[in-house]
Amino acid sequence: METYQQILSICLETTKQLLQFAEESQWDQLEAGLKKRDKSLQQLLALNIVMEDSLKVRQAIEEIKKIDRRVMALAKENREKIFANLKQRKQGQKMKAAYGRTIKRY
Predict the structure, then answer these.
(1) What CATH number has the domain bearing residue 9?
(2) Model confidence over 34-66: pLDDT tens digits?
(3) Is the CB of residue 11 less than 8 Å from the CB of residue 37?
(4) Is 12 exposed, middle or buried (0-12, 13-18, 19+ CB in 10 A)?
(5) Which of 1, 13, 30, 49 has the fewest Cβ atoms within 10 angstroms?
């Protein structure tokens, strides 16, 4: 069985990978990484961590949360770009259709 230090290390490394995936717009890998990290976090929660070690765990979790906020910001930016592109595409299709109707009249 892995120690809490090993599990924390896995969680932190996976979280850093998640940020890299988000920065590179590798959303499929990000999703797979989230599942991996969630599994490790569940293992961590199942452990009995002594009081002396709780500060280390807390600090690591704070770092994970900080990185997660950055990942979420990148995901939000990507979502907004996708919606903007879809909106432009729909607008282009409407313009094309209107142009087509105008041409048919003449």
Answers:
(1) 1.20.58
(2) 999 999 999 988 888 888 888 999 999 999 999
(3) yes
(4) middle
(5) 1
> Which string of b and e fits 29-63 if b means at least 16 CB within 10 Å?
ebeebbeebeebbebbeeeeeeeeeeeebeebeee
Residue span of the structural domain in which 62 resides: 4-105
- Predicted confidence (pLDDT) at residue 74 exceeds the cutoff of 80: yes
Q: Which whole-number Å values give the CA distances from 81 to 11, 36, 38, 95, in the listed order? A: 29, 27, 27, 21
Confidence category of residue 104, pLDDT binned at 50, 70, 90:
low
How confident is the model over 11-34, as pLDDT tens digits? Answer: 999 999 999 999 999 999 999 999
In this structure, how many other beta carbons lie within 10 angstroms of the beta carbon of residue 74?
A: 19
Q: Please tell me the total count of domains within the chain.
A: 1
